[in-house]
Design brief:
By secondary structure, the protein is of the alpha+beta class. It contains 9 helices and 11 strands. The protein has helices spanning about 1-5, 40-55, 85-100, 130-150, 155-170, 210-220, 225-235, 245-260, 265-275; strands spanning about 10-15, 20-25, 30-35, 65, 70-75, 115, 120-125, 180, 190, 195-200, 205. Strands 1-2-3-5-4 form a 5-stranded antiparallel sheet. Strands 6-7 form a two-stranded antiparallel ribbon. A two-stranded antiparallel ribbon has the order 8-11. Helix 4 packs antiparallel against helix 5 and helix 4 runs parallel beside helix 8.
């Protein structure tokens, strides 16, 4: 597969039961080969990586070849998280966001409107008003999906609906659409052995920059304080952004409720209740 997509003979395959797998091309060049199972998944990821790379801000692995089901990217030797790399990453993330997007929900050029965040569907319908767009396309679809799966009760769904009704007053000052990675949890942050961070597995789209910052904080990230310090030096978020972190975490939490069940529902409900007290 790697040979066909890169045009270079492949040598040894480092086998693993999961995707991606590492393949050594002739000459010893290591690459990563990943399968995308959903329709359009590879096209969405390739378009996202290229869109992020075009910002010339945060680095991403180069795409070396792809088709509808498989993609090959460079393998990045990894190292340990360090404070200097984290600070630079924060500054670069601010520059990535500043590269912008045409609309909230805008897919990367060449990417499909129907994409994915992890294994969950992600609809990139476009809008110009962030509170309305976030409610319609990032919160309520996953609330409905969780109710359909029985991981949220209808009465609990009403709590998220009330948050959505109040989004115009809770969202803070208006901001232009930012160029988001879109699934920026710590597992998608690669700390390179060369001291530079790369981002992998994007669910890239136009969104609110505070959403990427909130997702970085959701499951913990090494050197988070230094990342945020670098970001705030380059492009300080609007006043009160730390009080809005939970609001932006509703989206990824509800995705986890849909994908992984009730274990995340209580956390999402707590965040929603807290938002309604503000």
């Amino acid at each position: 597969m790697a040979a066909r997509l890169t045009g270079r003979p492949a040598g040894r395959v480092r086998t693993t039961p999961e995707s991606p797998v590492e393949v050594l091309l002739d000459g010893g060049t290591p690459v990563m080969v990943k399968r995308g199972d959903g329709p359009g998944a590879v096209r969405a990821e390739v378009a996202g990586l290229r869109w992020l790379a075009e910002a010339d801000a945060v680095r991403v692995p180069a795409v070396l070849g792809h088709d509808e089901h498989w993609m090959v990217t460079e393998r990045v030797p990894t190292g340990s998280p360090g404070p200097a790399a984290a600070f630079r990453f924060g500054q670069a993330l601010a520059a990535l966001h500043a590269a912008g997007a045409s609309h909230f929900g805008a897919p990367p050029p060449g990417g499909p409107e129907d994409a994915y965040i992890g294994a969950a569907p992600l609809r990139n319908a476009q809008g110009t008003d962030w509170p309305r767009w976030y409610a319609e396309h990032r919160v309520l679809p996953y609330v409905r999906g969780a109710v359909d799966r029985g991981t949220l009760r209808p009465g609990e769904a009403a709590l998220f609906e009330r948050v959505c009704e109040r989004l115009p007053e809770l969202a803070g000052p208006p901001e232009p659409p930012a160029r988001l990675h879109g699934d920026l949890w710590n597992g998608n942050v690669l700390w390179g052995a060369d001291g530079e961070v790369r981002l992998i597995d994007p669910a890239a789209h136009g969104g609110h920059r505070e959403t990427d910052l909130a997702m970085l904080q959701l499951f913990g990230c090494p050197q988070l304080d230094r990342i945020l310090a670098g970001y705030e030096q380059a492009a300080p978020p609007a006043d009160g952004w730390r009080q809005r972190v939970g609001l932006h975490q509703l989206f990824p939490l509800l995705v986890h409720v849909v994908l992984f069940g009730r274990a995340y529902a209580d956390q999402a409900l707590e965040v929603a209740r807290d938002a309604l007290t503000r």
